[in-house]
Write a structure and sequence with these properties.
Radius of gyration of chain A: 20 Å
CATH superfamily of chain A: P-loop containing nucleotide triphosphate hydrolases
Shape of chain A: globular
Pfam family, one (chains A, B): PPK2
Number of domains of chain A: 1
Oligomer: homodimer
Organism (chains A, B): Herminiimonas arsenicoxydans
Distance between the termini of chain A: 55 Å
Structural class of chain A: alpha/beta
Strand order of the largest sheet of chain A: 2-3-1-4-5
Order of helices and strands of chain A: HHEHEHHEHHEHHHEH
Protein name (chains A, B): Polyphosphate kinase
Largest interface: A-B, 27 and 27 residues
Helix content of chain A: 40-55%
InterPro entries (chains A, B): P-loop_NTPase (IPR027417), Polyphosphate_phosphotransfera (IPR016898), PPK2-rel_1 (IPR022300), PPK2-related (IPR022488)
Family (chains A, B): Belongs to the polyphosphate kinase 2 (PPK2) family. Class I subfamily.
Chain lengths: ~270, ~270
């Protein structure tokens, strides 16, 4: 069977818009069956996290990017929801505070990176500083190019100091976003998730798609790969992310540290 | 008059040991006169900090490195002591804590960098991670080379995001260190400053000198210059650092932000 890492790995020359957001290459064709498989994978991921923590050798950083409604929150719940809350930390980066704005754009991000044995999920990240900021011309191409260089150096440093980085771009179609926004508007129980500003951002759809492609071209690397996840189907989105997580964790060859034979001689009095 | 920035700027090919730690090129020849001048410069620096804070455009980062007893604490007091405590922050980096060790070596450092309008002094810094760590073979040359690359990228990023960086290497002679350590041992009031481990580190004197030269060669840059300060004389050390600070601040063309003419119309009731 082909590696799922290869299957979803972004190609530098790829234009995001060329890809079908509705693709479901991993699906069995049966949604119930797919969901059972996600549960199994999520369980396996939870067990692996326990070993990751015990071993304290690797740092695991997951970065989620995507348009509004692309399912970043849903992916965190569906793929990482079985992990002991003690063992996972999800960080949502919002619009920067005044104090954060007074520092370089990586300042608040660097503070949140995982330590040895930790698994941290960035729900949005430093990539917003080359996306929404560029879409609205808050920064120009020259500043954007500088930031890409800083991001590449930063991720290389993280990688060389023991961080395993996985970057997921959740790819939805414009039609699917329309549907999801309409659902949020129609259902009062979903109003808390709806921000009228999302409709404003939607007007920049094409600019965002162009900039996502640039983001991938500028920062995809073997030590910090981008995976493009077709995300019109929520089930397949989680199946794809969970499968990539499992294959990545398997490659780490996680194992509990060796026991200490001296301990057997100890008496608890 | 020649620029003091040029006078003390490290040369990449320089061997530290070639320099006389006892040099006093800025001295008037009269210690009382020199001290008066330091006071004047320190006063000017304090006033400039007030404008720096009001303007909130620049971030100012001072890095102090040097052997034990080279006068890092003394320089902070003598040069920056007249600044309003609200306007200056001195950060002493000690041996890393377990949590700090679980992260990359720049993690704790990045958290402490100045924001807009702030002046921050690093008393020791990320450079310890290529100095004491290398002297004791806790890292090898390959890891050391990686760290130098990370440091160069980090400082370039700080510079490009508005940080003015000044790095001071306080250069003392082996004889002067011996004298100062003996004073600390002889005077009970100085015992709190004495750490028996300083005598152990002193045995690696030549290794440290070689590594300081390498540090300068690897990381001196126009946007993050190293200044080598002859520091056998405490008075001249402060005179040199204060002079470099003043010339650097002058180049920033600091100015209070323009007043708001509308404010004159306001009434306080």
């Amino acid at each position: 069977m082909a590696s799922v890492l290869q299957l979803f790995r972004a190609s530098k020359k790829q234009k995001i818009v060329d890809m079908a957001a509705a693709e479901k290459p991993l699906s069995s064709g049966d949604k119930t069956q797919d969901k059972l498989q996600i549960d199994e994978l999520a369980e396996w991921i939870a067990e692996s996290q326990d070993i990751l923590y015990a071993q304290r050798r690797h740092k695991l950083l997951i970065i989620l990017q995507g348009m509004d409604t692309s399912g970043k929150d849903g992916a965190v719940r569906g793929v990482f929801g079985k992990i002991d809350p003690l063992g996972v930390r999800s960080v949502a980066f919002k619009a920067p505070t005044p104090v954060e704005k007074d520092h370089d754009f990586l300042w608040r991000v660097h503070q949140q990176v995982p330590g040895n044995g930790e698994l941290t999920i960035f729900n949005r990240s430093h990539y917003e500083d080359v996306l929404i900021t560029r879409v609205h011309d808050w920064i120009d191409d020259k500043e954007c190019a500088r930031r890409y260089e800083h991001i590449r150096s930063f991720e290389k440093m993280l990688s060389e100091t023991g961080t395993v980085i996985l970057k997921f771009f959740l790819h939805i179609s414009s039609d699917e976003q329309k549907k999801r926004l309409e659902e949020r508007i129609a259902d009062p129980d979903k109003h808390w998730k709806f921000d009228p500003n999302d409709l404003e951002e939607r007007k920049y759809w094409n600019d965002y798609q162009r900039l996502y492609a640039k983001m991938i071209a500028e920062t995809d690397a073997d030590h910090a790969p981008w995976y493009v996840i077709p995300a019109d189907s929520k089930t397949h989105r989680n199946l794809a992310i969970a499968s990539i997580m499992v294959e990545t964790l398997q490659k780490l060859k996680l194992a509990y540290p060796a026991g200490n034979s001296e301990y057997a001689k100890l008496k608890v009095v």
